[in-house]
Design a protein that fits this description.
The protein is an alpha+beta fold and about 425 residues long. The protein is about 40% helix and about 20% strand. A hairpin with a 6-residue loop joins β2 and β3. The termini are far apart.
Length: about 425
């Protein structure tokens, strides 16, 4: 048995923890540079605001319906996610944190009434962290994910599913006739792993509901579509095919890209941005214990502006695989100087690490005939760099070409509506006044 614990409208719920006045009001959280809606409250969804809707198309709701738009505060969301996940872990012996707001729990061996236990965990998360969540339970991870959808929909739109399944839905407690009724009224695009293109293909041959999908022959599905869809069908039929992952798999590519808050033209400003992106990518690379063999750097103008367009990228091979920030920054800046052209209003840049392999800086001496003492020193330096930024906050120690973090940089993102870091910044602590 598996459970999926999922925070409701997570980014919006995080904002409401410290601003109760937002409860009951339509709220959206905007993406980087305040471009489009990446989270919506139920009240905002009721206005017809779609996920990814551009802000300039929905801002009229601010006057007509009191819509509140906020800039994304990812540091706050990450901190509240950690608190929520630590409480969700009490539901069972093993946990897989699937995303910032979702967590799979293995319920194997857990005794007692799972629904009552889930309601207690849900209440604890709401009381201690302030995040409302729903919990779905099923024999497989795919069924647990679908049960979570039923729990959320029953709470948000009573009448589509039985009201007793709101907040916590356990498929294992339902009669086969009840389960078939739920599957028959659920569209296939609500199934985990069935995307837009696959939905079109399945609908074209008459497969429209989850019940239709569960009645397919898995062997036929494998021949006609893929082994991935075959696994999904088997999971919907109650056969576990996707195991719990205690740790994420190492990434084969690591990217750090950003759109600029304002167009950038100067090479020095671009160098600051690329240095920052390369440094963050290097930190992620070391965190998963890997080395990169190539560094890709790109710059481009905005396709949505009427200005003259320019887009270039370059891949710079490293002399030997490395996770050293200095090496990766130097490669990225070398590529930037090669592709930079004056006179263009550049809107985005990024760094992508390629040819990633397992290994750490301290074993490069053995692999590539580097002086062992020098290699150990570089490893210690990178470890110290990571520890300082982890303890005192990102950007505490920077490479000189990144500029000064305290200054307003030309390439930084628009975040004009961002709330304080209530739990991540001493200066952002909430103040209670009598």
């Amino acid at each position: 048995m598996y459970a999926l614990v999922d925070g409701n409208n997570f980014y919006v719920s995080c904002e409401r923890v410290f601003r109760p006045s937002l409860n009951g009001r339509p709220v959206v959280v905007l993406s980087n540079n305040d471009g489009c809606a990446v989270a919506r409250s139920n009240e905002a969804k009721a206005l017809g605001i779609a996920m990814g809707a551009p802000w300039f198309k929905i801002q009229h709701f601010a006057e007509s319906d009191g819509l509140v738009a906020l800039s994304a505060n990812f540091a706050l969301y990450g901190d509240l996610s950690d608190r929520m996940m630590s409480l969700a872990a009490g539901l069972g012996p093993h946990q897989e944190i699937y995303s910032i707001d979702e967590s799979f729990i293995d319920l194997t061996g857990v005794r007692g009434n799972l629904v009552i236990r889930s309601h207690k965990i849900r209440s604890r998360i709401l009381q201690w962290v302030g995040i409302p969540c729903c919990i779905g339970i099923g024999q497989t991870k795919t069924l647990a994910k679908l049960a979570n959808h039923v729990a959320k929909t029953s709470e948000r739109k009573p009448g589509i599913y039985p009201v007793q399944l709101a907040q916590v839905c356990d498929f294992s407690t339902l009669a086969s006739s009840q389960l078939e009724s739920i599957f028959a009224s659920t569209q296939i695009n609500e199934v985990w792993g069935v995307g837009r293109q696959l939905t079109k293909q399945l609908t074209a041959v008459g497969i429209q509901s989850v019940l239709d999908l569960t009645r397919l022959d898995p062997a036929m599905v494998k021949r006609r579509w893929s082994v991935v869809l075959e696994r999904t069908v088997r999971e919907l039929q109650g056969t576990p095919c996707i195991q719990l992952e205690s740790a994420p798999h190492p990434k084969h590519e690591i990217a750090c890209t950003r759109s600029f808050g304002h167009p950038v033209t100067a090479l020095n400003d671009l160098a600051e941005a690329v240095t920052e992106f390369a440094s963050r990518a290097s930190e992620k690379l070391r965190k998963q214990g890997s080395l990169a063999g190539q560094v890709l750097c790109f710059i481009r103008t905005s396709p949505f502006r009427q200005d003259e367009q320019y887009s270039r990228s370059i891949t710079v091979p490293l002399r030997r695989p490395s996770a050293d920030t200095a090496v990766i920054v130097a490669a990225a800046l070398s590529g930037l100087r090669t592709i930079y052209r004056d006179g263009f209003l550049l809107a985005k840049a990024g760094v992508i690490l390629l040819e990633i392999q397992q290994g750490t800086i301290d074993n490069q001496g053995q692999l590539w005939d580097v002086d062992e003492h020098e290699s150990t020193e570089r490893c210690n330096l990178m470890t110290t760099l990571d520890n300082l930024n982890l303890r005192y906050g990102r950007g505490t120690v920077l490479f000189g070409s990144a500029g000064l973090s305290g200054n307003r940089r030309a390439w930084t993102m628009k975040q004009e509506r961002r709330t304080p870091g209530y739990t991540t910044d001493w200066n952002g602590l909430a103040v209670a006044r009598a």
